[in-house]
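Q: Convert this sequence to structure tokens.
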Amino acid sequence: MNDNNPELCVNLWYYLDAETLNVFLLAGRVYCLGGTLEEKQRLLRALAETDFRVAPTFAVPTTLLRNESDACLGTKPLLPEFVDLYHSEVFHPVWEHLWAELAHLGLAEEMGDKEKLPPPGSPLCLTTCVVEYEDGRLEPLVMPMGKRDGQWSQSEMDDWTFSMG
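A:
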């Protein structure tokens, strides 16, 4: 990998209880990666498989935006399909922490405002589900190259469902 075009890249994780299928924890980590877009994406995916173990974790916000049809939001358990729909609200505390971390390192001014963090769904922001099984085992479900959040095929979803139980 060359050091051309260094950019801020973000890995976000949400932890899913395999038994209840509820999201119970969030995590995130920011990186400054160089190289081509494909090299950065490949490295983000590789890091997503392991770095969730050392990334700071956060509770799922209980103050999410809510309307009458979104019964799963608010103080009720968060279902995984709502992570993508309400990505900004769900990961807000993680995003604030990542920005504060950059500011603490003196990088926030150098990198500009918060808009320099890649937005959710962008090629440089990867969101990964980490499944926690009853025995305590953690398994990250990293999307294959070329996929973006919310773009799992039906067969990939079937495989994932099968592996859960």
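Residues 132 and 138 are 5 Å apart (CA to CA).
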